[in-house]
Design brief:
Keywords: Lipid biosynthesis, Lipid metabolism, Magnesium, Metal-binding, Phospholipid biosynthesis, Phospholipid metabolism, Transferase. Belongs to the GGGP/HepGP synthase family. Group II subfamily. It comes from Neptunitalea lumnitzerae. By secondary structure, this protein is α/β, with parallel strands linked by helices. It has one domain: FMN-linked oxidoreductases (TIM Barrel). Helix content is 39%, strand content 18%. It has ten helices and eight strands. The protein has an eight-stranded parallel barrel, surrounded by six helices. It is globular. The mean pLDDT is 96. The structure holds SN-glycerol-1-phosphate (1GP). SN-glycerol-1-phosphate binds next to strand 8 and helix 9.
Length: 245
């Protein structure tokens, strides 16, 4: 099934998906089998691959290795056009709506077209809103943009709604990789009420409570990266919780 429809179905059913984010800069090829063995024992439904500063050429062999260990959709979450590979199943076609840098609003997207035109990836238009999770992140440094504070709820909502009006099919609320504070429940709830498209939430979710709060607040897909990188026992948290809003 299309990964996009898997997310749409999750929204309809009220049982959000959990996605693991694998950063090609942090997981080596040799570590893939053991890591994917852990993933297979959990309710993780989607595997995202990407990062802000990944060297060209290392994403493709990593995705190929991951695909040897899973039938779950592997979806690119790229920081730039150099991370594209047709070995994956899909692509979050991101626009950095919180920023005002044309490089990440249109230039990278145009540059990707010659590759994507020939590729078989499922490409899904995704608004990407960087929020201030309390820590300077690589995304901020690379994109030269500033995140929106959690307190500016109307600005967050208006940005997300503008993305929906412009045709985004998914909206990603991002507190930043390794954020000190994940996206607050109130922010997710407000955006959720205002949009018809599914909402992805990630950044700084590293405790069971943060995960449960994010589930209850109405996120349709929850992305976790750092928690698994730093402490693989976090996989056990996933085994023990009921994933329903
Ligand atoms: C980052 O939202 C993802 O782009 C995941 O964040 O690494 O903090 O889990 P963490």
């Amino acid at each position: 099934m299309s990964y996009y429809h898997t997310i749409v179905n999750a929204k309809a059913s009220g049982a959000p998906l959990i996605a693991v984010l694998i950063d090609p800069d942090k997981l080596t090829l040799a570590e893939v089998p053991a890591f994917m063995n852990k993933v297979s024992q959990t309710a993780i439904a989607v595997i995202l691959v990407g990062g802000s500063t990944v060297a060209a050429g290392i994403t493709e062999p990593l995705v190929a290795a991951i695909k040897q260990h899973t039938t779950k959709p592997v979806v690119l979450f790229p920081g730039d056009v150099g991370q594209l590979t047709n070995k994956a199943d899909g692509l979050l076609f991101l626009m950095l709506l919180s920023g005002r840098n044309p490089e990440y609003l249109i230039d990278q997207q145009v540059a990707s077209v010659p590759f994507l035109r020939e590729a078989s990836l499922e490409v899904v238009s995704t608004g990407y809103i960087l929020l201030d999770g309390g820590k300077e992140t690589a995304t901020m440094q690379v994109t030269h943009t500033t995140p929106i504070p959690f307190t500016e709820i109307n600005r967050i909502k208006d940005t997300a709604k503008a993305g929906e009006f412009m045709g985004n099919k998914l909206m990603y609320l991002e507190a930043g990789s390794g954020a000190l504070h994940p996206v607050p429940v109130e922010v997710i709830r407000e955006v959720k009420q205002d949009l018809t498209i599914p909402i992805i939430v990630g950044g700084g979710i590293r405790t069971e409570k943060a995960l449960l709060d994010t589930i209850k607040s109405g996120a349709d897909m929850i992305v976790i990266g750092t928690a698994f990188e730093e402490d693989e026992t976090f996989f056990e948290v996933l085994q023990n919780i009921t994933i329903a809003k």
